[in-house]
Each structure stands twice: as C-alpha cells, then as structure tokens.
Specification:
The complex is a heterotetramer, with two copies of chain A (131 residues) and two copies of chain B (117 residues). Chain A has helices spanning 9-25, 30-49, 84-87, 101-108, and strands at 2-6, 54-62, 68-76, 111-116, 122-129. With 131 residues, chain A is an alpha+beta fold. In chain A, helix 1 (9-25) runs antiparallel to helix 2 (30-49) and helix 2 runs antiparallel to helix 4 (101-108). The longest helix of chain A has 20 residues, at 30-49. Chain B is an alpha/beta fold and 117 residues long. Chain B contains four helices and five strands; from the N terminus they run E-E-H-E-H-E-H-E-H. Chain B has helices at residues 23-40, 57-72, 84-93, 106-114; strands spanning 6-9, 12-16, 44-48, 76-80, 101-103. Chain B has a five-stranded mixed sheet. In chain B, a hairpin with a 2-residue loop joins strand 1 (6-9) and strand 2. The longest helix of chain B has 18 residues, at 23-40. The N and C termini of chain B lie far apart (38 Å). Classes of the chains: A alpha+beta (131), B alpha/beta (117). Chains in contact: A-B, A-D, B-C, B-D, C-D. Chain A binds chain B through residues 9-10, 12-13, 16-17, 20, 30-31, 33-35, 37-38, 41-42, 45, 90, 97-98, 100-101, 103-105, 107-108, and chain B through 1, 20-25, 53-58, 60-61, 83-86, 88-89, 92-95. The structure holds adenosine-5'-diphosphate (2 copies). One adenosine-5'-diphosphate binds at residues 42, 46-47, 50-51, 76, 78-81, 87, 92-95, 97-103, 122 of chain D.
Chain lengths: 131, 117, 117, 131
C-alpha cells in the first residue's frame, strides 16, 4: 500500500503518476488506466483545493469473485460537504470549477463511496476492477 | 512549477505539452498565450497534446478557455494529437471541449488554420 | 459622471477609454456614438481599451451593443488593445464579445476597417 | 478592514479601485487581480441595481494552511432572491442584464457564498487566495 500526501499541485501530479504505475502494473487496459488516473486527479485536486490538503492511499485489492482491482482512498480534514447529493450533481460547484469533478470521477470508476460530515473532513474511496 | 514553452513560427504559436500538467502550469500557459497573442498578433495557435496522458476537468476547461481567449484576439486554436483514451475519458467525464477545433496532428492543424480566409 | 470623448478623423470615429468606466458613462458613450454615426455617416469606429483594466458583463454587453448599433448605420466597430488579463477574465465570466472585431492596436484596427470593401 | 457604501455608480467604481489596491498590495497576480476586481464589479452592481444599495467589506484573511486571501462581503437590504439556484444559472436574469453576474463572479473567485431570504436582503461573500 502506498500513502501519498496531497499538499500541493506537484503532489497531485505525483498521485496521478503513482496511480498510473500501479494500474499499468496490474494489467488494467490503457483506457481503464486513463479513466482511473483522471478520476484520481479530480479527487486529489478536490482534497487540495476544497479540503485544504489531505492524503491518497493506493492499494491493490481482490474482489469476492477473485478479480484484481485498484482501490484509492482520498481523505482530508477540510470543511466537509454539507449536501453530498448536491455535490454529486453535474455542474454543481461552490467555487470556480466546472462541478464535474465528483460526478465525473464517479462515472469513471467501478465503485465510488463518498463520506463527509461538515466540520469533519471528507473521504472518497474509489475502485477500478481489471477486466 | 514547470513552464510550457511557446514557439512562434510565422503567424502561428506552437505549444507542445511535454510535461505532467499541474494546475499552475496550465494557468500559466493560458496567461502566457494571452500575452503572446496580444503582443504578436498571431492568427493561430496549435496545441499539441500527443504526449498528454490525461485531461481532467480542470485541464479541459483551460483548453476550452484558451480557444475562447484566442478568438478575442482574432486567432484560432487547434488542439492536435489527442489520444483515443483521453477522448473516451473526457466524454465519460462529461466534458465536450466545445468550441475548440481539433486535428490529428500538427501538420493537419496547420492546414486547418491556413484554410481560414 | 465622466464622459468619454469621441474623435472624428476622416470617416472613422475614434474612442479611447481613459477613465474608470461606470455604467452611466458607458451608456452615455453608446448614445453619443449612435448620435455621431447618424450625424456624420462615419464608416468605422475604433474603440481603444488599452487603458481599461476590467470589462465586466455590463461593460462587455455595451461594447457588443455598440458593434451592433454601428452595423445599423453601415459602419464597423473594431475593439483594439484588449489586455491579456481582461481577455482571460471575460472568457471565464462567460462572455465572448461575439460580433465585435478585434485588433491589436489602433493602427491594425484602421487597416482592418479599410480592408472592407 | 474597509467598509465602502454602494449607493451609486461612482461607488461601484470606488469598490473596484479599492479591491484593486488591496489585491495588488497582497501580491495577487495581475490576472487574479483582474478576476477579483471584475467579480467585485458584478456583485457591487447587483447590490446597487437589484438590492437598492448596500455595502462592501474588504478584508485580508489567512486560510487554515496559511495562505493569504482577499475576502469581500457584499450585503444589501433589498428584496432578496427567492430561488438562489436559479439566480446562479448562467443567463438567468429578472432584468435586462446578461444574467452572468452571479454565475460569472462565482467562476472568477476561489470561494463563493450566497445567502438570501426574500424580503430580508442578500449577502454574497467571495474569497480569492493568492497563489
Ligand atoms: N474534499 C472536499 N472537501 C470539501 N468540499 C468538497 C470536496 N470535494 C468537493 N467538494 C465540494 O463539492 C463541490 C463539487 O465538487 P466537484 O464536482 O469536484 O466540482 P468542482 O471541484 O469543479 O467545484 C465543490 O465545489 C466543493 O464545494
Ligand atoms: N443583490 C441582489 N438582490 C436581489 N436580487 C438579486 C441580487 N443579485 C442578483 N439578483 C437577482 O439574480 C438575477 C441574476 O443576477 P446576475 O447573474 O447578476 O445577472 P443580471 O444582474 O445580469 O440580471 C438578477 O436578475 C436578480 O433578479
């Protein structure tokens, strides 16, 4: 398992690179690698920009039916998200973004879990299974 | 923060993105391009993303904006070399890059630019 | 309220905006320009915004409208000297100034005007 | 902290000028200054035109991670906004405007908060962080 800090734009790039290496290593197709890295980029940026910094944990997991997958958990101690459903709406943003980060990332992965409590930070876990 | 260089050849600005783009670098590129367009009167911008492995919503928005900004300076932007996996991912993300012209490679991009009156 | 002066040179009206534009001043400029176009039969308008530090949605809309109004008098408007930071900001604001021609500076703007039939 | 009245077109210009000075003073880039001043211009005009006049409070703030930012709060005692989501939609206007003031201003800043109750005025707070 890899744990990477997300405290700067450079860190976001490092998370992308690390996810790419792990995903390629586990035999994800080029398209699936690209989707996972893109989702990771969105979520790492959110942890940095909205969460004031956080961490990314990348690990290889095995499903109940024996499939290999990459699981990435992002967490931060930022202000949290008051209305999670709203935050997952395409185009919804509290800042200058496009509001496609969360909703788009969810479409790019196989599993997506967002947990957040206002005042207690945000955690997002995604999994992409190899086919 | 690494900076993406801008090359001027004739009336066209060439940008070939060879680094792992962090947000600051893309914003800087946008500013540098706006500055060059205002200073040189270039009529076209070619952005080569052959080496770009991912375009997320932030980078995608910046690319679209570069297209709009260049139009304000009476120039046109063509995005060349987008990888198939990037195009597929962008679509699933929900981004359309509307308003930016695309071409297979720099050569075809140049043709597109010179085709305009 | 400060007023923006309009200069007539040959068949072209020149406007150089040197003040911090408040809404009234822009509206007044629009009216003054319409009046001048009707009175003089000028065929071109050059608006120099080199000194303009910001263009917000109101000012942007007025500039676009000046373009449309001048077309009604069979004249063309060229916006010159837009700062890079202004172009970037307008784009992010969501305004395109569609329908207004742009040029780097007054000289190039004049060329653009004389290029028309 | 600066508190400026917004009762006339001249006041809107003064708010812009003041924001420019503070932003330049705090080392915001030229582009970021321009974005913030433009957003302030939109919001000050709204307070004047839709809110019947109000005030702008400009202050320098520091984020949890130590970044400096400019925070501007606009408030008025006007009629308020019944449907805030609608008002934040690109192109939506009740007047002759372009309907890009609120939505555009939000894109130009890093943080944006709009609070309004019909009959009780409107308050908009924006922050732009220095990079
Ligand atoms: N880690 C986070 N901490 C706090 N708020 C968040 C976080 N991630 C997302 N948000 C909130 O959800 C909104 C939507 O996020 P997203 O879909 O990624 O779009 P964008 O980042 O472009 O605004 C953000 O504007 C922000 O208010
Ligand atoms: N301070 C305010 N008080 C009351 N209504 C407001 C205020 N600001 C904005 N609004 C409402 O929201 C609408 C959209 O605002 P905006 O996006 O700035 O566009 P515009 O000002 O061009 O109409 C306005 O038409 C108005 O009805």
């Amino acid at each position: 398992m890899d744990e990477l800090p997300i405290q700067s734009g450079d860190d976001v790039v490092r998370v992308r690179q690390r996810v790419r290496v792990v995903a390629a290593d586990r035999g994800l197709s080029l398209v699936d690698q690209t989707k996972l890295v893109t989702a990771a980029s969105e979520l790492a940026r959110n942890a940095l920009v909205h969460g004031g910094g956080g961490t990314a944990r990348i690990e290889v997991v095995t499903s109940a039916v024996g499939r290999t997958g990459i699981r990435i958990g992002f967490s931060d101690d930022g202000p949290g998200i008051a209305d999670v459903d709203l935050a997952l709406t395409d185009g919804w943003t509290t800042g200058g973004g496009l509001g496609l980060g969360l909703s788009g990332a969810r479409r790019l992965v196989d599993e997506f879990e967002l947990a957040s409590k206002p005042g207690h930070g945000t955690s997002v876990v995604v999994i992409k299974w190899s086919r | 923060m690494e900076r993406v260089p801008i090359l001027k050849l004739g009336r066209t600005l060439f940008v070939s993105i060879q680094i792992d783009l962090q947000d600051e670098s893309v914003m800087r590129l946008q500013e540098d391009l706006a500055g060059e367009l205002a200073a040189t009167g270039a009529t076209g911008v070619i952005i080569d993303i052959t080496a770009v492995e991912i375009v997320d919503s932030f980078i995608g928005r910046m690319l679209t904006m570069i297209g709009s900004i260049s139009r304000m300076f009476d120039a046109e932007t063509v995005l060349v070399g987008m990888r198939p996996a990037v195009a597929i991912t962008l679509t699933e993300l929900g981004l359309s890059l509307r308003g930016v012209r695309t071409a297979l490679n720099a050569e075809k991009g140049l043709k597109l630019l010179s085709g305009r009156a």
